[in-house]
Amino acid sequence: MPSSSVTVALPASADESVFSSVSSFFSSLLPVAHAEEHHFDECTKRVEEGKGFEGENCIEEFFHLSHCAQECTAPKLFRKLV
Predict the structure, then answer these.
(1) What domain count does the chain have?
(2) Distance between CA 53 and CA 38 in Å, rounded?
(3) What is the rounded distance in angstroms from the CA atom of residue 67 to the CA atom of residue 58?
(4) Is 20 contained in some domain?
């Protein structure tokens, strides 16, 4: 059974710079998001090397990472700031 995913088309140069920047940003803020970060980094590497499937852009992995930031890390971070 094929899995469903969301695909967003971005120009190739935008893909690399946006995902690289986002990955670096989240890596610096979310040391507890190892699993999600790992999947996102693997996907980004695979796509950059041309080994991903046609049209793959790692947006699904990014949303998993973002979800972890919102639901797992943000409450811990904001507790320390308040």
Answers:
(1) 1
(2) 19
(3) 14
(4) yes
Residue 2 covered by a domain: no
Domain hosting 73: range is 12-81
Within-domain flag for 4: no
The pTM for the full model equals 0.50
Q: Based on the number of CB atoms within 10 Å of its own CB, is 32 exposed (0-12), middle (13-18) or buried (19 or more)?
A: middle
Pair 62, 40: CB distance under 8 Å? yes
Which positions ≥6 away from 28 have C-beta within 8 Å? none
The answer to which of 18-22, 31-35, 51-55 has the lowest mean pLDDT is 31-35
Residue 79 has pLDDT above 90, yes or no: no
Look at residue 47 and tell me if it is in a domain.
Answer: yes
Cα four-point dihedral sign 26, 28, 32, 38:
positive
Q: Which two structure tokens, joined as six digits, stand for 62? A: 């990014």
